[in-house]
């Protein structure tokens, strides 16, 4: 139910101002690390490259400034004694600054908070029910470039502000970096509203 509400909140933003809102989908890969800060060890926990995908709404607020609503599905693979696969549905609210005179052209930077909800956690396809926090807060920041009218490339940093593990005495905060290729659906679908014919007689 809560995931449905998140989807509705994001895509209803399109109704605010259709001319200023751009929306699309994204996908990419990220590499995450998870240093352990428990009482007995400070060694890094091994991690692996994992995929992510989702949808976004990019709303031009003022001049070169925009707000990006981001709904993504991430997989994080972290090896404790065995590899743990963590799947999250996350919602990000990012401030975007275009470095070009015109919005949605050239290079840009972005950053902001995120909240992530654990959907599944498993070891060797066996689901884990305890020991993992169900909700995570974090920060996403990075830079990107508009490759053309419908493609963008993002490079980003993603860090959690709370421990993945719910057990007391051990802090494992996941952070990583990666890239996303974004496809703007407005331009791809060439949506438009036909203008009235000024020569048309009543």
Q: What Rg, in angstroms, do the CA atoms define?
A: 20 Å
Report the mean per-residue pLDDT as an integer. 80
Number of strands: 9
Query: Helix and strand string, N-terminal first?
Result: HEEEEEEEEEH
**Could you say how many structural domains there are in total?**
1
CATH topology-level fold name: Porin
- Strand order in space, largest sheet: 1-2-3-4-5-7-8-9
Q: Profile the largest sheet.
A: 8 strands, antiparallel, barrel
Which spans have pLDDT < 50 for at least 5 consecutive residues? 191-202
The helix-and-strand class reads mainly beta
Specify the overall morphology.
elongated
Separation, N- and C-terminal Cα atoms: 49 Å
Portion of residues within helices = under 10%
Class in CATH?
Answer: Mainly Beta
The number of distinct helices, counting runs of at least 4 residues, comes to: 2
**Percentage of β-strand residues:** over 45%
CATH architecture: Beta Barrel
């Amino acid at each position: 139910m809560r995931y449905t509400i998140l989807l509705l909140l994001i895509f209803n933003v399109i109704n605010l101002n259709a001319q200023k809102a751009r929306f699309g989908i994204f996908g990419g890969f990220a590499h995450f690390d998870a240093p352990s800060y428990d009482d007995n060890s400070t060694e890094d926990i091994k991690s692996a490259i994992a995929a992510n995908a989702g949808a976004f709404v990019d709303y031009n607020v003022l001049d070169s400034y925009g707000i990006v609503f981001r709904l993504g599905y991430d997989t994080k693979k972290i090896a404790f004694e065995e590899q743990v696969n963590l799947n999250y549905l996350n919602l990000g609210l990012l401030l975007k600054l275009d470095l070009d005179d015109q919005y949605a052209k050239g290079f840009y930077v972005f950053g902001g908070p995120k909240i992530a909800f654990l959907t599944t956690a498993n070891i060797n396809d066996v689901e884990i029910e305890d020991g993992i926090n169900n909700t995570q807060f974090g920060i996403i920041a990075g830079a990107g470039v508009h490759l053309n009218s419908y493609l963008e490339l993002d490079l980003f940093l993603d860090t959690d502000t709370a421990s993945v593990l719910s057990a007391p005495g051990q802090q494992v905060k996941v952070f990583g970096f990666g890239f996303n290729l974004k496809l703007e659906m407005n331009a791809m679908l060439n949506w438009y509203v036909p203008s009235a014919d000024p020569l048309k007689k009543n």
